[in-house]
């Protein structure tokens, strides 16, 4: 059994999905959504809560989704700093 064609097809599909993410978040609407995600899902503040361990886990889960999106769009450092600055201003 030759798994190479299947691996190539999976890689092609992953690339297409990554390109869709990138196109989406490079648009004006996508950038606004990214700013909102930064503000609301623990990219701009810590997830720690000394009184509730379960809340920390939920907060980290929320944050990990934003980190996943950032890994998909491979945003450059300059653009990331711009988004952080704008998210702080809003």
Helices, by number, come to 4
Q: How many strands? A: 0
- Report strand %: under 5%
Helix percent band: over 70%
Distance between the termini: 56 Å
Task: Report the mean per-residue pLDDT as an integer.
Answer: 85
Q: Report the biggest beta sheet as strand number plus sense, adding barrel if it closes.
A: none
Order of helices and strands: HHHH
Structural category: mainly alpha
Shape: flat
Radius of gyration: 17 Å
Kindly describe this structure.
The protein has 90 residues and is mainly α. The protein has one domain. 78% of the residues lie in helices and 0% in strands. The chain has 4 helices and no strands. The longest helix is centred in the N-terminal third of the chain and has 23 residues. It is flat and about 55 Å long. The mean pLDDT is 85.
Key traits:
mainly alpha
Could you outline the blueprint of secondary structure elements for this entry?
Blueprint (H helix, E strand, L loop, with lengths): L3 H23 L1 H13 L12 H21 L3 H13 L1
Summarize the structure.
With 90 residues, the chain is mostly helical. Helices cover 78% and strands 0% of the residues.
